[in-house]
Write a structure and sequence with these properties.
heterodimer; A: mainly alpha; MetI-like fold; two-stranded antiparallel ribbon; 15 helices; elongated; B: alpha/beta; 8-stranded mixed beta sheet; 5-stranded mixed beta sheet; 11 helices; 13 strands; binds adenosine-5'-triphosphate; binds iron/sulfur cluster; binds magnesium ion
C-alpha cells in the first residue's frame, strides 16, 4: 500500500509532511494572540482588568485597614496619604472597601455570566438541534424574555427572592441568557447541515455525541465573545440592583452599594461616589474592549453580536423574516427551509 | 451467502449479487417564496429513480450540478428523509446468519444504526466533511466509538492500519485536518468510511474538489481498495471523464431523473440520449487529432428549476432535437430498455451521434 504514497508524493504531500504537529497547534493560538495584540484598546483593557483583579484579590490582604472596623473620629475624610481614596461615613478606609467590594462585584458578574451561559447554551442547543416545533416554542419564549425590560425583570426577581449573593447571581444570570441562547441556536442550525455532522450521523454517532463532539466545540468562539461581553453587562446589572437597594445588604458591600451610600453625601464628600464609579467604569470599559478584541479575532465579519441597538433590531427583524436558507446558484437561488436530518 | 431473510415487514426481493436496490426514490424539499405572500412549494430534487448496485461493482451516477445527485446519496442513507420509494440493502451478516435485507427508507432507528455499519459515505468537500476541532485519530475512530468497538488501544491500532491502507502515515494521527492538503483530507474521509468494514460506500463526488493531478491518485486508491476489500461503490460525479475508469455501470441523471443507463463500455461506445451526447462531447479524447476535429455540444441556457420542471421531457428546454410542441412537451418519456441492458428515456433516440445537430464547436 505504501507504493500509493511514494507514487503520489507530490509537492502538496511534502509540504504537509514538514509541518510539525505541536508547532501547528501552538501556531493557531499564537496567530490568534497576534491578531488580538494588534487591537490596542483590547490589550490595554486586558492589562487594566488584570490590575483590577489582582488588586481586588490581594489588596484587602495587604491593606493595613479592615473593611469593617469603624473609626468614627475619621468620618468622610477626603483622599490623603493614609487613606488614598478617603474614608466613608463610618470612618472605614474606602480603598480597602472598594477593593473588597470589587471581589463581590466581579464575583457576582463572573458567576452570573456562568449561569447565563449555561442556561442559554442549554436552551439554544435544544432549539437548534431538534428544530421544528421545539425550536419554535423555545425561540418564542426567548423573544418574550428579550422583549421584557431587563430592569423590570431584575427588580421583580430581586424583590421576590430577597437579596443575597446567591440570589444576585441567579437573578442576573436568568436575565442575561437570551442572547447566548440565540447565538448557540444559530450556530447549531448552520453546523448541523455541515458535512462533518452528516458524516458523524452516517457513522452511527448518537445525538449526544453529535452535540458534544461536533456542535458545541464548533460554537465556542461566539460563546467566548458573548461571555466576555456578558460579564460587563452583569457588572452593571449588579451595580444597578445594589444602587437601588435590592442588592447586597450592609455591612457586606459591592461597588453598587457603595455608590448608594455615597448618594447622601454626594456634595459634601464627592470622592465617596467617584471612586466606586470609576472602578465600575474602568472594569466595564476594559471588559468591553477585550470582548471587541476577541470578536475581531474569532468572528471578523461581526456576525456574533450586534454592535449597537440598531444592529440588534435589524438582526431581530431579519431573523423573523428570513428563516429559510438560500440555496442554488445563479438565477436558480431560492430561499429554503432547512431540512431536518432523520433519526 | 445463504438465502436472504427479510427483516422488514413487507416482503422485498432483490436478485443475487445485488447489494443495493433503489426503487422509485423521490425526495421533495419544501421551498418557500420570500415576500409578503408566502407560498409553500415543493422542489422535486429526486423524481422517482431506480437503480441497482451489484456486489463488488461500481455504479456511477452522473449529471450536472443541481440534478439531485447528493440528494440521492443522502436519501439512500437516510441522512435526509426520502419522500417515497424503497432502498433495499443487503446487509452482510457474520458466518452464522447470512445476509439480511433491509428497506433503509422504512428502517427503525436501531436497524438504521446497524445499516450504518455496512454502508458508508464519502463527501464531496474535503474541508467541510472533517470536523476542524478533532484530530485525525478522533475523526477516523469516530465510527468505532459510536458502535463501541474495541478499547482505546485497539482503536488507535485500527486507525494506524486504516491510515496505512489509504496511503498516509501513522504519525499523521495526532494532527488536525487543516494541516493537510485536499487530497490527504479526502484520504482521511475514506479511511473513516472504511473503519467499520463496510460493504457499500457511497462516494459523493470524491474527487471533484481536487486538483487534476491529485484526482488520479485518489481514483487509483479507490480502485485498489475496491479490489482489495471487495467493496461496492455508488460513485457520483458531474462529468463522464472521471467515471470512465472506475465504473461498471453508468447512469446519467438529469433534473431528478435517470435518462440513460448502461454498462460502462456500452454507454461510452454508443450513447443514445441527447443529454448523454452532450456530456460525452465534453470528455476529452486522448488522441489530439481526433480531439481537434471534434465538435462540442454546448447546451444553451441553465438547468431549469426543479420546482416547475418542464412538461413532457424534462430535458426539452435544452435539447437540440426536441420537437416542441409535439411528443417532447406532451408526453414524459419513460425509462425503457432500448437494447439489452441499455435503458433510455427519450422519444427520439440518437444511436448514430448528433454531429449534424450540434451547435458551436
Ligand atoms: N435542503 C434543501 N432544501 C431545498 N432544496 C434543496 C436542499 N438541498 C438541495 N436542494 C435542491 O435540490 C436540488 C438538487 O441538489 P443536489 O445537492 O442533490 O444536487 P447535486 O446534483 O448534488 O449538485 P452538485 O453537483 O452541485 O453537488 C438542487 O436544486 C438544490 O437546490
Ligand atoms: S424526449 Fe425529446 S426533448 Fe427529451 S431528450 Fe428526447 S428528443 Fe430531447
Ligand atoms: Mg452534490
Amino acid at each position: 500500500m505504501t507504493d500509493i504514497t511514494s507514487r503520489g508524493v507530490s509537492e502538496e504531500n511534502l509540504i504537509a509532511l514538514q509541518i510539525d504537529e505541536e508547532v501547528e497547534e501552538v501556531a493557531n493560538w499564537r496567530r490568534n494572540w497576534r491578531s488580538f495584540k494588534r487591537n490596542r484598546p483590547a490589550v490595554i483593557g486586558l492589562v487594566v482588568l488584570f490590575l483590577i483583579l489582582a488588586a481586588a484579590i490581594f489588596g484587602p490582604m495587604i491593606s493595613p485597614y479592615d473593611t469593617l472596623t469603624q473609626d468614627l473620629g475619621n468620618r468622610l475624610k477626603p483622599p490623603s496619604l493614609a487613606h488614598p481614596m478617603g474614608t466613608d461615613e463610618l470612618g472605614r478606609d474606602s480603598m480597602t472597601r472598594i477593593l473588597a467590594g470589587g471581589r463581590v462585584s466581579l464575583g457576582v458578574a463572573a458567576l452570573a455570566t456562568t449561569v447565563a451561559i449555561t442556561v442559554g447554551t442549554t436552551i439554544g442547543s435544544i432549539a437548534g438541534f431538534y428544530g421544528r416545533w421545539i425550536d419554535n416554542v423555545l425561540m418564542r419564549f426567548t423573544d418574550l424574555a428579550l422583549s421584557l425590560p431587563d430592569l423590570f425583570l431584575l427588580i421583580l426577581a430581586a424583590s421576590l427572592l430577597g437579596p443575597s449573593f446567591t440570589t444576585m447571581v441567579i437573578i442576573i444570570g436568568l436575565v442575561r441568557w437570551m442572547n447566548v441562547a440565540r447565538l448557540v441556536r444559530g450556530s447549531f442550525l448552520t453546523l448541523r447541515e455541515r458535512e462533518f455532522v452528516l458524516s458523524a450521523r452516517a457513522s452511527g454517532t448518537r445525538s449526544r455525541g453529535i452535540i458534544f463532539k461536533h456542535l458545541l466545540p464548533n460554537s465556542l468562539s461566539p460563546l467566548i465573545v458573548a461571555g466576555t461581553l456578558g460579564v460587563a453587562s452583569a457588572i452593571i446589572a449588579e451595580s444597578t440592583l445594589s444602587f437601588l437597594g435590592l442588592g447586597l445588604q450592609p455591612p457586606a458591600s459591592s461597588w453598587g452599594t457603595m455608590l448608594r451610600n455615597a448618594q447622601q453625601v454626594i456634595f459634601s464628600a464627592p470622592w465617596a461616589a467617584v471612586f466606586p464609579g470609576v472602578m465600575i467604569f474602568l472594569t466595564v470599559v476594559s471588559v468591553n474592549f477585550i470582548g471587541d478584541g476577541l470578536r475581531d479575532v474569532f468572528d471578523p465579519s461581526g456576525t456574533t453580536l450586534s454592535k449597537s441597538r440598531f444592529h440588534r433590531r435589524l438582526e431581530r427583524l431579519q431573523e423573523k423574516y428570513q428563516k429559510p436558507q438560500v440555496v442554488g446558484q445563479g438565477n436558480q437561488v431560492k430561499a429554503v427551509v432547512p431540512e431536518r436530518p432523520s433519526d | 451467502m445463504t438465502s436472504p431473510q427479510t427483516q422488514t415487514s413487507e416482503a422485498t426481493h432483490i436478485n443475487d449479487g445485488v447489494i443495493l436496490r433503489v426503487e422509485d426514490l423521490t425526495k421533495e424539499f419544501l421551498v418557500q417564496r420570500r415576500g409578503i405572500k408566502r407560498k409553500a412549494q415543493y422542489l422535486q430534487a429526486v423524481a422517482g429513480i431506480s437503480f441497482e448496485v451489484r456486489s463488488g461493482e461500481t455504479l456511477s451516477l452522473v449529471g450536472e450540478s443541481g440534478c439531485g445527485k447528493s440528494t440521492t446519496a443522502r436519501a439512500v442513507l437516510r441522512l435526509i428523509e426520502p419522500t417515497s420509494g424503497k432502498v433495499i440493502f443487503r446487509m452482510q451478516g457474520d458466518e452464522s446468519n447470512g445476509a439480511t435485507l433491509v428497506d433503509i427508507a422504512q428502517a427503525s432507528t436501531a436497524e438504521l444504526r446497524l445499516v450504518r455499519r455496512h454502508a458508508q459515505i464519502v463527501f464531496q468537500d474535503p474541508i467541510a466533511s472533517l470536523n476542524p476541532r478533532m484530530t485525525v485519530e478522533a475523526i477516523i475512530s469516530e465510527p468505532l466509538v459510536a458502535h463501541r468497538i474495541g478499547n482505546r488501544k485497539e482503536r488507535a491500532e485500527r486507525v494506524r492500519e486504516l491510515l496505512d491502507l489509504v496511503g498516509m502515515k501513522s504519525s499523521h494521527a495526532q494532527r488536525h485536518p487543516r494541516s493537510f492538503s485536499g487530497g490527504q483530507r479526502q484520504r482521511i474521509g475514506i479511511a473513516r468510511a472504511l473503519a467499520l468494514h463496510p460493504s457499500l460506500i457511497i462516494l459523493d463526488e470524491p474527487v471533484s474538489a481536487l486538483d487534476v493531478s491529485v484526482q488520479a491518485q485518489v481514483l487509483n486508491l479507490l480502485d485498489d481498495l475496491q479490489n482489495k476489500l471487495g467493496l461496492s461503490y455508488l460513485f457520483i460525479a458531474h462529468d463522464l471523464a472521471v467515471v470512465r475508469h472506475v465504473s461498471t455501470d453508468v447512469a446519467v441523471m438529469y433534473l431528478g431523473k435517470i435518462v440513460e443507463k448502461a454498462e460502462r463500455n456500452e454507454l461510452f461506445k454508443s450513447p443514445v440520449h441527447p443529454y448523454t451526447h452532450a456530456l460525452m462531447s465534453a470528455v476529452p479524447i486522448p488522441d489530439p487529432v481526433i480531439e481537434a476535429g471534434r465538435r462540442r455540444i454546448i447546451l444553451e441556457s441553465e438547468i431549469p428549476s426543479a420546482v416547475n420542471p418542464p412538461s413532457g421531457c424534462r430535458f426539452r428546454t435544452r435539447c437540440p432535437i426536441a420537437q416542441v410542441p409535439g411528443p417532447c412537451s406532451e408526453e414524459e418519456p419513460e425509462l425503457r430498455e432500448y437494447s439489452p441492458g441499455h435503458m433510455l428515456a427519450c422519444h427520439f433516440p440518437q444511436p448514430d451521434g448528433m454531429i449534424g445537430l450540434t451547435s458551436k464547436s
